[in-house]
Design a protein that fits this description.
With 310 residues, the protein is an alpha+beta fold. The chain has a single domain, classed as phage-related protein like fold, CATH 3.90.1690.10. It is 27% helix and 26% strand. The strands form three sheets. Strands 1, 2, 5, 10, 11 and 12 form a six-stranded mixed beta sheet that branches. Strand 11 and strand 12 form a beta hairpin. The radius of gyration is 24 Å and the shape is flat.
């Protein structure tokens, strides 16, 4: 076997950074805290905080100026932390994988997946950071009430849970009865065979939310595995700078100095010392929550998921 025939190229690999990392994992964190590109690893950002409503004046003296309430921006600071992971593929394994091109895909995807997993874990930990108010005895009313508390914040309302909580939900008598009525008198067993997409659409209607997001158990904070959330998602189609004028939940500040990558960088090189091709994925990000009132945390079951991620 010629060593040159199994060596990868040296340098940045935007082609590998653009590959889908894992089609089976449902990443939802960047829907809740969208990526906001920054050109430094640390800095100051400005955002709009919720302004308390002021009572309208009904007894102004003629000719006197009305009392003004000043609206000004709030600010915070971010510091993007490095997330890096390295994988290697021995030279002798390259032919077994189908050649250098296929080996590059395997190594690049593995490295990228580790960095994306770190991002998802951090985003969900930012969202679910405390115990929730129990709604196990009145699920629908509890979620609707939580959504109503968020009405002054901008964006679409979403119910967010993990897979274990989702499975718990669909087994509850309250939800199963609603499901049976919704789908035209199906028996309970048949109703549970409805596709997840259709079921989620039904939950959107029942819970009076715009979206239902189900996260992979692997990334949900284990301490709060029984806690779900109702939160505001930034409005679709808006400028990514909308948080300067609108009262939104938060953003993921990602240090992203290059135009050609996707918020992370992958590099590859051949290491003759260890006789392997090496793949590095690296990203820098900081989770920033502007208005924690734009989310409500809810406890929906008592056992939670114990699913262990691979």
């Amino acid at each position: 076997m010629s060593i040159d025939a199994v060596k990868t190229q040296t340098g940045a690999r935007p082609d590998l950074a653009a590959l889908p990392a894992n089609g089976t994992v449902n990443y939802i964190g960047s829907l809740i805290y969208p990526i906001f590109r920054v050109f430094g690893k640390a800095g100051t950002y400005y955002y709009q905080a919720l302004q308390a409503d002021s009572t309208a004046t009904t007894s102004r003296t003629v000719g006197a100026a009305p009392t003004a309430v000043t609206i000004t921006e709030s600010s915070g600071s971010f510091s993007a932390t490095e997330q890096i992971k390295r994988y290697k593929i021995p030279y002798e394994a390259v032919p077994l994988l189908g050649g250098v091109e296929k080996a590059d895909e395997v190594g690049g995807k593995a490295a990228k997946r580790s960095v994306l997993n770190a991002l998802e874990t951090a985003q969900l930990a930012e969202l679910v950071d405390a115990s929730g108010t129990s709604i196990t005895s009145a699920i629908q009313d509890g979620i609707i009430d939580a959504a109503d508390r968020l009405h002054r914040y901008d964006g679409r309302t979403a119910f967010v849970c993990n897979i274990g909580q989702y499975r718990w939900l669909i087994q509850q008598t309250e939800i199963r009865n609603m499901l049976v009525r919704t789908f035209g008198g199906l028996d309970a067993v048949s109703s549970l065979s409805i596709t997840p997409a259709a079921f989620k659409s039904m939950l959107q209607t029942l819970f009076m939310v715009d979206d239902v997001l189900v996260a992979d158990d692997k990334f949900w904070p284990y301490t709060y595995r029984t806690t779900a959330a109702v939160c505001k998602l930034p409005p679709q189609g808006r400028d990514n700078m909308s948080f300067l004028s609108d009262v939104e939940l938060g953003r993921t500040m990602v240090y992203w100095p290059k135009d050609e990558n996707e918020g992370l960088e992958i590099n590859s090189f051949a290491d003759d010392d260890i006789r392997a091709n090496v793949y590095d994925a690296i990203s820098w990000f900081s989770l920033e929550e502007f208005n924690d009132g734009a989310k409500a945390l809810l406890t929906i079951n008592t056992s939670g998921s114990t699913t262990a991620g691979a």
